[in-house]
Amino acid sequence: MSKxxxxxxxxxxxxxxxxxxxxxxxxxxxxxxxxxxxxxxKSRRRAPKNIFWETDMYTANRDGERDLRLEHLLWRLExxxxxxxxxxxxxxxxxxxxxxxxxxxxxxxxxxxxPRRREHWRGQWERPLEMxxxxxxxxxxxxVEQKRAMGRIPSLSNGPAFSHExxxxxxxxxxxxxxxxxxxxVGPLLAKLDFAVLQTDDxxxxxxxxxPCVWYDAxxxxxxxxxxxxGLMYETIEITFPITPSxxxxxxxxxxxxxxxxxxxxxxxxxxxxxFMADEHFVVRKNKTNLVxxxxxxxxxxxxxxxxxxxxxxxxxxxxxxxVQ
Length: 325
Description:
The chain has 325 residues and is of the alpha+beta class. It has 9 helices and 13 strands. It has one domain. The protein has helices at residues 12-15, 69-89, 97-112, 115-141, 144-151, 164-172, 174-190, 264-277, 304-324, and strands at residues 6-8, 33-37, 43-46, 53-55, 60-62, 65-67, 194-199, 208-209, 214-217, 237-244, 247-252, 258-261, 281-284.
C-alpha cells in the first residue's frame, strides 16, 4: 500500500484511553478496546490502529500525485489534542483561551471527518451537480440567442458561487473539498457555547463510537420534521464528546460550565445517545454493556407528530359526524 494510505476517521490516539485496563501492554499483547456492533450482540478485541479507517480517505489527487496535506493537518491537530488532554483535561485544570479554541476545533473535526458526514455532504451536492450537468448539456446544443437569454437570467443567491468543476469535486471527494471549511466555520461557533467536562469514576464509564461527537436537542420532537435537525441556533442544543472513559465534554446553552460530577442518570443518558448515534460500532473499555443503552424512548404526548396526528383524527371524526348529519 502507498505510504500514509491507512487514514483513520476516528483518530487512533483518541481511542487509546478506551484500551482495556485489565490487559496492559506486554511483549505478547497489544492494547485493545472492546468493539461492539451497534446492536450490542457481538464484541471483539481490537487494537485502536486496526479500526475506524479507510484507504486514502483524506488524500487528494493533484496532477497525478497523492496530496497528503489534509491527512497531515489532521495529524497535527490530533497531536495537539493529545498533549492538551494529558496536560490539562486529565488533571482537571482550567483551559486557557487558546486551549479552549483548540479543543473546539478538534471537536468540530471529530464531527466532520466521519463517513456519515461525508455522505451527508455528497447528498447535499448531488442534485445541484445534476442540474449543472443538465444545463451544460442544454448550453451545448443551444443557439446563440438561447445562450444570450440564459446569460441574462439574474442570480437568486447572494452567497458564494461555485463552478461546475468545483461542485463536481465536492460530490466526488467531499472530504477534500469541505472538511477544512467546516472545521474553520464550526469550531469558533462551538467556542461560544457553555463548556463543561462531566466526570465519572464508574468502572465502565463513558463509551464512544465510530461517530463520537453527538449533537442532540431534547426539544426537537416538538418541532415539525423540517426543523428537527439539531442546530447551534437552538437554545436546547447539547453536544457531547467523550474524551476518556472518565470524562465527557458537554457543550450547552444552559450555563453548565467547568468540571462537574456526572451521576448515574447523566452517564446512562450520554452513553445511550452515543450508542444510538453510532453508525455501525461502539467502543467500551471493558467487555460489558448496559441494557439502558438500548432502551427505546416512548414518544412524548406533546410531540409535534402526536399532536398533529390527534388533530387529524379529530378532524376526520368531525367530518364523519357532519356527513352522517
